[in-house]
Every structure is written in structure tokens, then in C-alpha cells.
TrEMBL record:
GO terms for MF: ATP binding; nucleotidyltransferase activity; tRNA binding
Keyword Transferase carried by entry: yes
Residue positions binding ATP: G72, A73, S74, D78, I104, G182, D187
Keyword Nucleotide-binding: yes
Enzyme kind, highest EC tier: transferase
Any GO BP annotation: tRNA wobble position uridine thiolation
Gene Ontology cellular-component terms listed: cytosolic tRNA wobble base thiouridylase complex; mitochondrion
Subcellular location: Cytoplasm
EC code: 2.7.7.-
Listed name of the protein: Cytoplasmic tRNA 2-thiolation protein 1
A Pfam family recorded for this sequence: zn-ribbon_14
Lineage: Eukaryota, Fungi, Dikarya, Ascomycota, Saccharomycotina
Gene responsible for this protein: NCS6
Residue ranges annotated for the tRNA(Ile)-lysidine/2-thiocytidine synthase N-terminal domain, each copy included: 69-253
Organism the protein comes from: Arxiozyma heterogenica
Length: 364
């Protein structure tokens, strides 16, 4: 039996063997997979992309039937693809989960207001309910107001602490105990690298967990994109013509993270598999006994410091291993700064800066 080369749908000429998809061998390859440089067609790309995420979900038993799940939806490429994929896989594989979108409005004019407009369109496109929780309603501060008193350099510290709490509070409001986020393989590898560079062994061991939760919290978080490359997420969004918001946050990433990100990108350029390799290295790292003892002694000391009232912040009732939670400490510094702004303009950053130094001394 003789083999007939498939015809190129564009120029109607027979395709050369080297032009064929390396998976199906019958369509023209138009994508070079960033993960392994395999040349494949669009249909096979969709198939492998979706199947790998489904395998991650199943192998790690991320969901159970009947579970209610909130997708952290920021309108960016990762969470938009996550919303789309979660709905698609839930229907295709009958996970039996109830999906809702949860967005946090940090109050960043020209960035979050525009990205939330995208989430609202996604809500209609995917037919999923949406809950929006704002920093202003929770903390009486927007990120723009915070940056005005605390400076742009510390913006990620404030935003990270407040967003984490806000997502938990939003989920609690919805009566949901599971939040999925669009953190991808690049984010994971970057975090492993950062913890190595900082020598932060305690965080390093946990940094590759696909499911996490704060101690005592009923709310868990998971990352279905743990092994998914950012470049593939962008390609998928592009070929599926998904509606997402692509502008970077007005407040640049923390300098150290930015440098780690740059380093990862350079490494990926030379060796694409290094993203997954770093994650695997992180997963297989085991702390030496001596280190484990030091870390667990620290945890014991921390446990002793915990107050008896069910680990709740005295001020806001949020889960905390200290009397006052990290968010309330930050808010206190901000309030002091706000007060000092009205008294003496030169000392505007004093309260916020002192609060950050206090936070650095505390261990959480
Ligand atoms: N304002 C927000 N509201 C809800 N979820 C959020 C918000 N910001 C971040 N998240 C969640 O945390 C994940 C990681 O966010 P981060 O800002 O670090 O990355 P990102 O690459 O910009 O993500 P994305 O492309 O989804 O915006 C997001 O994919 C999303 O699931």
C-alpha cells in the first residue's frame, strides 16, 4: 500500500514529512511546543495541553464529586485559561464540581478596573457566577492609596498579604473551602529558585506542593497549572481566541522576584526543560535531619507563642499564628502613616516602613 502525503490546506500542495505534526502525522505542524520543542498541529496541541492538566488534576486527586470550587479570576492570561479549562474538563470528564469565579479588586486604577471588566465578560462567556471582593470594603484602603503612603517598593508585600486574606474571606462568604489559582510551572520554578537563593529551607520544602492551606484554615488552595508552561498557556489562549487582559500590574514585581524571573527566562532559552527540572528537584529535596530539627524547633517555639483562642487575630478574627495577624499589623502601620501625613509630610513613610521592619523580625 502506498502512502499519500496530506495536502497543505493553505497552498494545496502535498506536505513534506518534516512538515507533519509529530503526534498525529496527518496535519501540518504549526506549533513548536515550548515544553519539549515538539512540532505539532493546533488540534494535537489542544489535546495534549488539556490532557496534561486533566492528568495533573486526577493524579493529585484535586477535587471530589460535589465539591464547590472558587477560581481566583484576575482577568489575566493564566486565570482566564484556568476558568475556561476548569469548565471544559468538568463537563468533559464529569468531575461533578460546582465552579464559581472569585475576583479581588485591589483598587489599582488603570489596571485592575480594566482586568475586572474582562472577568465580567468571561462570567457571561462561560456562564459562571462571579463574586468580587475589594480591598476598600475589607481594609478601607485601595492599593493606590497604600502606594501613596508606603511607596511603590513595598507594594507587593502589602498586596500579597491582603490578597491572600481577601481570597479566603471571599471564599468564606461563598461558603467555599477550595480556591484554585492560575499559578503555573514558571511561577513554581521561580519560587523554588528564590527560596534556594535566599537559603529559605523551610519554605523550599513546601514551595512545590500542589495543594496548600494555612494551618487551622478550612480553606485549601490548589494549582492545576503546576506543570503547565506559561508560554503554552499564552499559546492556548491565543489559538482559542480567549478574551483576556494582558497588561502587567502598574506596580512592578518585587525586585528580587523580578531578577529570579529574568534568570528563569534566560535558563529556559538555553534549556526549555529546566522549568520542569527545577520543579522536580524541588519536589525531591529532603531536609537534612539537623535542619529538620531546627525548623521543627522553630515551629514548636512558634506554636508556644500561639495564643489559646483558636489561632484567630484579636482584631479581625482572621486565622493567625500570632495575636495580631499580618494584615492588621500592616494596616496599623498604614493608619499611622496616614495620620503622620496630615501632621508632617516628610515622615509620610515612617509608620509603614517601621511596620515592614517589625514584620521582617516576626516569623509566621
Ligand atoms: N485580583 C485577583 N483576584 C482573584 N484571583 C487573583 C487575583 N490576582 C491573582 N489571582 C490568582 O492568583 C494567580 C497568580 O496571580 P499572579 O498575579 O501571581 O500571576 P499572573 O501570572 O499575573 O496571573 P494571571 O495571568 O491569571 O493574572 C492568578 O492566576 C489568579 O488565579
Amino acid at each position: 500500500m502506498s502512502w499519500t502525503a496530506p495536502i497543505d490546506p493553505v497552498n494545496k500542495k502535498p506536505l513534506k514529512v518534516s512538515q507533519l505534526c509529530e503526534i498525529c502525522h496527518c496535519r501540518k505542524a504549526i506549533i513548536k511546543r515550548p515544553k519539549n520543542l515538539q512540532k505539532i498541529c493546533k488540534e494535537c496541541f489542544f489535546y495534549v495541553f488539556e490532557t496534561e492538566i486533566h492528568n495533573t488534576i486526577v493524579n493529585n486527586k484535586l477535587f471530589y464529586k460535589g465539591e464547590r470550587v472558587a477560581v481566583g479570576a484576575s482577568g489575566g492570561k493564566d486565570s482566564t485559561v484556568l476558568c475556561y479549562i476548569m469548565k471544559l474538563l468538568n463537563e468533559r470528564h464529569n468531575y461533578g464540581i460546582d465552579i464559581q469565579l472569585l475576583s479581588i479588586d485591589e483598587g489599582i486604577v488603570g489596571y485592575r478596573d480594566d482586568s475586572l471588566a474582562t472577568v465580567k465578560r468571561n462570567q457571561k462567556q462561560y456562564g459562571l457566577p462571579l463574586e468580587i471582593v475589594s480591598y476598600k470594603e475589607l481594609y478601607n484602603w485601595t492599593m493606590d492609596e497604600i502606594v501613596a503612603v508606603a511607596g511603590i517598593r513595598n507594594s507587593c508585600t502589602y498586596c500579597g498579604v491582603f490578597r491572600r486574606q481577601a481570597l479566603d474571606r471571599g471564599a468564606q462568604r461563598l461558603g467555599i473551602n477550595h480556591i484554585v489559582t492560575g499559578h503555573n510551572a514558571d511561577d513554581m520554578a521561580e519560587t523554588v529558585l528564590m527560596n534556594i537563593l535566599r537559603g529559605d529551607v523551610a519554605r523550599l520544602e513546601k514551595s512545590t506542593s500542589i495543594i496548600t492551606s494555612s494551618s487551622g484554615s478550612p480553606i485549601k488552595r490548589s494549582k492545576p497549572f503546576k506543570y503547565t508552561y506559561q508560554k503554552e498557556i499564552v499559546l492556548y489562549a491565543h489559538y482559542k481566541k480567549l478574551d483576556y487582559f494582558s497588561t502587567e500590574c502598574t506596580y512592578a514585581p518585587e525586585a528580587f522576584r523580578g531578577t529570579a524571573r529574568e534568570l528563569m527566562k534566560n535558563l529556559e532559552g538555553i534549556r526549555p526543560s529546566c522549568i520542569i527540572d527545577i520543579i522536580h528537584s524541588g519536589e525531591n529535596l529532603v531536609l537534612k535531619e539537623k535542619k529538620k530539627r531546627i525548623v521543627s524547633n522553630q515551629s514548636e517555639q512558634q506554636a508556644k507563642k500561639q495564643f489559646a483562642d483558636g489561632n484567630r487575630c484579636e482584631r479581625c478574627n482572621y486565622l493567625s499564628s500570632n495575636k495580631i495577624c499580618k494584615g492588621c499589623i500592616l494596616l496599623e502601620g498604614l493608619e499611622k502613616s496616614r495620620a503622620s501625613v496630615s501632621i508632617e509630610c516628610d515622615s509620610a513613610n515612617d509608620g509603614a516602613a517601621r511596620t515592614l521592619r517589625t514584620l521582617e523580625r516576626l516569623s509566621f
